[in-house]
Design a protein that fits this description.
Largest sheet: none
Strand content: under 5%
Distance between the termini: 43 Å
Structural class: mainly alpha
Helix content: 40-55%
């Protein structure tokens, strides 16, 4: 145990020195590490677009299209009307693959 861990728990328990065990037990449960806000979700239209794109890319590439391929193609569709669009340099390098497509 680290010194900061001990200090943190001493601070939490100090107000309950003379309290009954039932009240202290709640404090001893600790703080939840669970996410406090729900993760952002995709709209049904976005999900339909991704599913359609995954099927189209699978036919073109003769393999299952992964999240990186789908994300790249979605960005191309967004900038399709722009004649001078070039993808940013960081898209050309290896970047961590996300499980789901991030919002545009």
């Amino acid at each position: 145990m680290s010194e900061s861990w001990v200090k943190n728990w001493r601070r939490r328990l100090r107000p309950y020195l003379n309290a009954p065990f039932e009240e202290v037990y709640v404090i001893l449960q600790g703080c939840s590490c669970a996410r406090k806000t729900p993760s952002p979700s995709l709209s049904p239209d976005e999900i339909l677009q991704i599913v359609t794109l995954r099927e189209q890319l699978a036919e073109q590439l003769h393999r299952v299209a992964g999240p990186r391929t789908i994300r790249t193609d979605l960005r191309r569709q967004v900038h399709a009307g722009e004649a001078t669009y070039t993808p940013p340099a960081h898209e050309l390098r290896n970047e961590p693959v996300e499980e789901f497509i991030t919002r545009r």
